[in-house]
Amino acid sequence: MSHFEPNEYIRYDLLEKNINIVRKRLNRPLTLSEKIVYGHLDDPANQEIERGKTYLRLRPDRVAMQDATAQMAMLQFISSGLPKVAVPSTIHCDHLIEAQLGGEKDLRRAKDINQEVYNFLATAGAKYGVGFWRPGSGIIHQIILENYAYPGVLLIGTDSHTPNGGGLGGICIGVGGADAVDVMAGIPWELKCPKVIGVKLTGSLSGWTSPKDVILKVAGILTVKGGTGAIVEYHGPGVDSISCTGMATICNMGAEIGATTSVFPYNHRMKKYLSKTGRADIANLADEFKDHLVPDSGCHYDQLIEINLSELKPHINGPFTPDLAHPVAEVGSVAEKEGWPLDIRVGLIGSCTNSSYEDMGRSAAVAKQALAHGLQCKSQFTITPGSEQIRATIERDGYAQILRDVGGIVLANACGPCIGQWDRKDIKKGEKNTIVTSYNRNFTGRNDANPETHAFVTSPEIVTALAIAGTLKFNPETDFLTGKDGKKFKLEAPDADELPRAEFDPGQDTYQHPPKDSSGQQVDVSPTSQRLQLLEPFDKWDGRDLEDLQILIKVKGKCTTDHISAAGPWLKFRGHLDNISNNLLIGAINVENGKANSVRNAVTQEFGPVPDTARYYKKHGIRWVVIGDENYGEGSSREHAALEPRHLGGRAIITKSFARIHETNLKKQGLLPLTFADPADYNKIHPVDKLTIKGLKDFAPGKPLTCIIKHPNGTQETILLNHTFNETQIEWFRAGSALNRMKELQK
């Protein structure tokens, strides 16, 4: 399975056996997604299978966790009382390194500031049999692609961009920490049987058009919730024109359309990548089982999109949402019309989405042309290598120096500005400005905590070209730059090797193997720590309906996990539930006053911060509810957005619709994620009302609950609330959380 785990093996034989059982039962051609997902069923002979309806019980091959979410996942695993993880698992230190001065200095600072957390993760990994990738090793998804992903794998990761591994033909799904704990505990993992959206690619990529443009185009078509409950499966003759790391880019950003995951069929580009990363034996085995790693001819997709790569133009999406798609040729005029700042303050390349050797090579090819004409970037410019292997290799092959020469700063091998870990100094908060990135997500304030930063996402080579020109009005396909000598010139479309001609340089060794004997290993959590806190079990359901719930906030418009539990400076509290709960919903807009982090306390009638109001209610025994809009909880997989409301006394979240991961996370923590049977009922509820949720004594799958809205004038209205709970998830609610239920079953 990996050279880090010589005793763990790929079970294509079991995959084949399960696929054959399911194929005989369904008696129809299967998509690739179905082959891999159904090939990992716990009971393929008896599992009920209906796309979009039934819940599947699955046996994933492995688990991956990044450091910000691994803290809570490992704290929950410790609470389970189990001695070792049941499947191969890894922890990756990538989220806690703040971009400030440059790679080496920022890494040293992060190791010092986060020593307590890194020590906890390292010792917990050693104690419970989890591999540990030290800070500086790189971003989780790049490490997974280089070392652990393979065609046909079913991998879950505690990060929403885990689908990156679909570029190597695997089904890799982002989840919350509690889901990871289930799998690490050896419990079958539940997933609603996904629908399958087919994206047929024809033609071939060329010129300035890159793999990133495929997903930017798809995001524009499907929007941020169009992929919810579905796997996006790319296929068709155009696939072969995309590199393996390019396919990973497309799958990675599939998270922004709400997709369960995305996947490409096994082909020679994947074989080439496996061989180059020291896994030729896996490629040879995949060749033997290739029929199970591609879709069947004549398989059915629930929706089909066709894209001709030969006609696809470079795209740039934003600002403030990743599905607002523009051709690069048009974004300048749109920006002028909308009043978006044209001057680009910073261009940022890298991140888990676009930090491959090919990405860095194409960006360097653009930079080299500018340097040949005596130009440097007009905008500030940063480069984030995806892994230590990428950093070392682009240093050896000269790409890093070219990018420095054009004005770039090479940051640490980490997430950095993409997740808000950016000590930005060039603007003041509230200053309107534009940045362009090769990242995947551009929600309001995400990169630098400034709500006036207009962030656009595009390919690394377009970012580089725009940073050189310094304006959104520049189209590298048609526009000219003026060289130092006063002569005009046009940038040629970049060309670069998809993989290094020599072998990859692995760089420094950053991996810690779990010891064979960990019986003497200690894992310490200080009771006075401000960074880590052992978990106390949540209270069980008391057997009664939820009466007179106070509305903490009625949210207006988009409410992502960034709005619910902000990242950036709050990342340092990801292992301390009480401390991080001080950021609960501070970014959400209150419909009552149009403000963020300002809600009415129903008892005192004073407006104050959301977390303070929630704590007041908890102290006085007042249970509360949140009212949300469409696609509530889109974005990150962070389960803190579910843990925090539960910790502070919340009992239900009622919305028009949910994002998949967040809905599951809420269920795992014993909360009720409910949706309006009639979305228009959102307008019947006012922040000053009280709600009673009835029907919990007869709580059953598919059976709506009743909500009584009690208005201050004494009148009442009754509405219906839908839910997606199955029997297992109802048991989580009754026990108080999925973890509580696990302990009950152990007893």
From TrEMBL:
This is Aconitate hydratase, mitochondrial. InterPro entries: Acnase/IPM_dHydase_lsu_aba_1/3, Acoase/IPM_deHydtase_lsu_aba, Aconitase/3IPM_dehydase_swvl, Aconitase/IPM_isomerase, Aconitase_4Fe-4S_BS, Aconitase_4Fe-4S_dom, Aconitase_dom2, Aconitase_mito-like. Residues 491-527 are annotated as: Disordered. Binds 1 [4Fe-4S] cluster per subunit. Catalyzes the isomerization of citrate to isocitrate via cis-aconitate. GO terms for cellular component: cytosol; mitochondrion. It catalyses: citrate = D-threo-isocitrate. Residues 550-678 form the Aconitase A/isopropylmalate dehydratase small subunit swivel domain. Its main location: mitochondrion. The keyword Iron applies. GO terms for molecular function: 4 iron, 4 sulfur cluster binding; aconitate hydratase activity; metal ion binding. It is found in: Mitochondrion. It is an enzyme of class 4 (lyase). PANTHER family: ACONITATE HYDRATASE B, ACONITATE HYDRATASE, MITOCHONDRIAL. The lineage of its organism: Eukaryota, Metazoa, Chordata, Craniata, Vertebrata. Keywords: 4Fe-4S, Iron, Iron-sulfur, Lyase, Metal-binding, Mitochondrion, Transit peptide, Tricarboxylic acid cycle. Pathway: Carbohydrate metabolism; tricarboxylic acid cycle; isocitrate from oxaloacetate: step 2/2. Its cofactor is [4Fe-4S] cluster.
